[in-house]
Amino acid sequence: MSLFDAANGMRLPARRRVPLRGYRRVLVEGAEIGTVVIERATVADLPQVNETHRRCSAASRRARYHRPRESLMPTEWSTLCGSGTGGTWLARPAANAGRVLGMVSVLPCSNPSSWDFSILIDDAWQGRRLGTVMARHAVASTRAAGVESVEALVERDNVRSLKLLRRLGAAIRTCDASTVEAHIRLRRDPVVPGSP
Question: How many domains does the chain have?
Fold first, then answer.
């Protein structure tokens, strides 16, 4: 079932340039869940995020963290929520703000022009395009903030994540026998007059 942007009455995924702060996107997904909202995470969301981690399979958590961790520590979550740059968005039913369906993060890493990208979707919501919508939202927000690229380290056998990243335009390169790096370029080089 496809998702819709209720505010604009159009099918998603639609790219929108938005600031990294204070953005809320309303989505609609069938009668069984009602309205789904994507909004910035705060440190107060940690208990709901950890509950989502517990609901996810070990395989899903391994795909996100490269190990099957069951929860995040407050200091880790504070970093993921961002402190001025980067951050995490959560998807949750509008009628049940205590339930997190997925999370996507983009954060500065050692290279300030390229940020780290990661995503975790509740097992029950995988394969329903929620991850694609969330990923496109995070990428568009990061692009609007002037970041040049995002990167993700992915286990080679993580077919779903690699498919999602390729849909976002990622170039994939092998790191080692079990890991690949996905690189999504967000800013295009300017066209220089007279260049081929």
Answer: 1
Q: How far apart are CA 163 and CA 128, in angstroms?
A: 14
pLDDT per residue over 40-82, tens digit each? 999 999 999 999 999 999 999 988 888 888 899 999 999 888 7
Phi and psi at residue 149, to the nearest 5°: -160, 165
CB 29 within 8 A of CB 1: yes
> Are the CB atoms for 153 and 181 separated by under 8 Å?
yes
Q: Model-level pTM?
A: 0.78
Token representation of residue 80: 């993921």
**Domain membership flag for residue 120:** yes
Nearest alpha-carbon partner for 127 in 105, 102, 97:
102
Query: At 90, which CATH number?
Result: 3.40.630.30
β partners of residue 156: none
Residue 194 resides in a domain: no
Tell whether omega for the bond before 13 is within 30 degrees of 0, i.e. cis.
yes
Count of Cβ atoms closer than 10 Å to residue 167 Cβ: 12
Q: Would residue 159 count as lying in a domain?
A: no
Say if CB 3 and CB 121 are below 8 A apart.
Answer: no
Q: Give every CB contact of residue 185 below 8 A, 6+ residues apart in sequence.
A: 148, 149, 169, 171
